[in-house]
Amino acid sequence: MSQSKKKAGKEKPSIQQIKQLDNSTKSVSLSDNDNLLINKQQKVVLPLITFLIAILAYLLTFARTVTLVDSGELILTSAKLGVAHPPGFPLYTILGYLFTKLPLGSIAARMSFMSAFFAALTSAVLTLIAINIYDVFAQNSPNKQGKNPNVQKQFLTDSIFLQPIFKFLMPPIVALSFSFSTTLWFYASVAEVYTLNIFMLSGIIYLMLEWHLKKQANDKKADNIIPVAALIYGLALGVHHVTILLTLPAIAFFVIYNEGFKYLLSKQVKIAFVTVLIGFAIYLYLPISANQQPIFNWGNPSSLERFYWHISAKQYQVNLSPSLEIVKEQFKYFANLTFWQFTPLGLVFIFVGLAALWKNKRNIFYLTILIIVFDLAYSVSYEIAEDKDAYYLTTNFALTIIIAAGLIDLFTKLATKSKPFATLTLIFFSILPILNFVTHYQENNKRNYLIARDYVENVMRSVEPSSLLLTLEWQFYSPYLYMRHLENFRSDVVVIDVNLLRRSWYIESYLTQQHPEMMKACEKETKEFLEDLRLFEADKPYDNVSISKKFFALINSFINYNLSKNQAAYTMLPIDPPTVVADYNLVPQGLTMRIYADKTFHLDPAPSLELRGLLDGSIHLDEVATKKLLPNYATMIANRGKYLSVAQRHDEAIEFLQLSLKLLPNFDRTYQFLGDAYAGKGEKVAAEQNYKKALELNPTNKLAQQGLQQLNQLPN
User: Fold this and answer.
1) Which of 111, 402, 537, 711 is 20 to 30 Å from 602 at the Cα level?
2) In this predicted model, what pLDDT tens digit does every residue of 14-61 receive, in sequence order?
3) What is the CA angle 322-240-389, rounded to 5?
4) CB neighbour list of residue 456: distance below 8 Å, 6 or more residues apart
5) Residues of 497-507 as b/e, b for ≥16 C-beta within 10 angstroms?
């Protein structure tokens, strides 16, 4: 009896203990309400601040005219409500049409502004996501690692929450770090689909985190978020569906991890299946547009079969390659790209964030890791040039969430030292977006980017009115489409993309609509080629020799039609296949080769070329300009030099060849041509030096070897 009383006496708290407990409870309650969670006002103010900072930076740098890659085509299909390349990007096209109506500069500038706008909106949503990560860390709820749910978490110490400046600055720091990362900023400055795509994804992830927080707080309205997120997911599929689909395993796992498999059978998830289909119905735009016969109707998805081909991106499936060499090369590219996304400083916060999420919030850890793993697994296996960096934007987005966790965790640990030390660490954190801005500003400043426009104009300088131009160069054809149809630039010329000529829709829709006289004159060759081409497109047996022969015959019919009318015909590099023009005399002029039926010399004057940004260093040259445009310029200028050299006009030839080297200093063919020119002038020493330089750059250059051997046989 006495023992039980003794026990009861021990369990009964004293008045002093009750007071302490009461004060402690009040302290925690006050901390929870005023410090731990970011208030509603901040959830409005902080995203707005982030949006304004990001959009101001983007307004300084977005392109005022057409740029390279798909920019020209996407602007055209948006402005004229056409059909873009697979999968068609219907949501982007419809929104783009609205943006082309803005009273803001050229149509190209309006579409670039659209990219900037959605990139800035992404920054605002990322601010909200960072706030959610903050709240997830702040809430005192049991975790799923089997720890005692009654134990206050280490990061809920007063030291962090006595620093209101941290909770005010952390979300914008995280969001702006992503805003000024190199890849997002690049696509925020040009007309492309990727900023809209990442904006839609950010909205989905934000809603999923909101759902998680509300479920933790036992909010009965939490489940209403799922159908809304699904609707946005369906709409997002109408932008760049591959990268969006790759996030589905991560999102599904996040739901299951938090609520179990049974939740997939809930009413809200069933509704979500309906709403995602409603969003996905945006693809009905494609057959509707196709049946209106727009100017550019890629794939002509007017039938069910063609509609499927288009949204499944059938023609691009050949780019998927599981070869080990391709994967290694692509992974190396990814690693180098990621290293500079947030500068090396960002990598510190990524590693800290991964550890913090693993320790404290496994559900968010798995969400971000699965996004990265699936995105990376697909992208390193997909062999595509030009916009490959955009495929890693979802990975960069997930890394930004991890950075938020890293900032919170690192500040919590360091702030326990002292308040002055906490202030210093906060200043250190603030460097990240500033460092990103300074590092990436110049390379993403497209305000005065005229390279694509100059390229089109330079090509056309040598092209006579009402002539034919054959090209395989998308970096020319895409901006030309914009300039032709929206600025009425050189609409007199028949420009044919030889790569697209391998697609029936291009012949039946675009060429027939734009050049009816020529297509009628070449009706026989067109019909014969289409017979075999349709077999190829439908995956039916076809004769490879026959289809190639008819393809060459069709191209030659275009050339002969123009030459027979005394109209000029031209081709651009690369000439593929060379057998197409084997029977003609190709005379290099500016960036084209004029096609002559005879075999005599035609020393037509070469037009002057505008090389703004290519030589003066005023523009940071992106990978496409460096790897595609510069070699094309250098090759054509070198070819002109060689042609002049053969005509014994060696001094003129040397001038052209020296210009070629300014554009591409390590081009072995130019040195070989210089050797030929100096040899023709009788300057043996200079010729020998250039031949040797050509062989130093490319030991397999047989023509340089022959030139050097012939030179050595000459008397001194």
Assistant:
1) 711
2) 434 433 433 333 333 323 444 445 677 888 999 999 999 999 999 999
3) 60
4) 476, 479, 480, 483, 489
5) bbebbbbbbbb
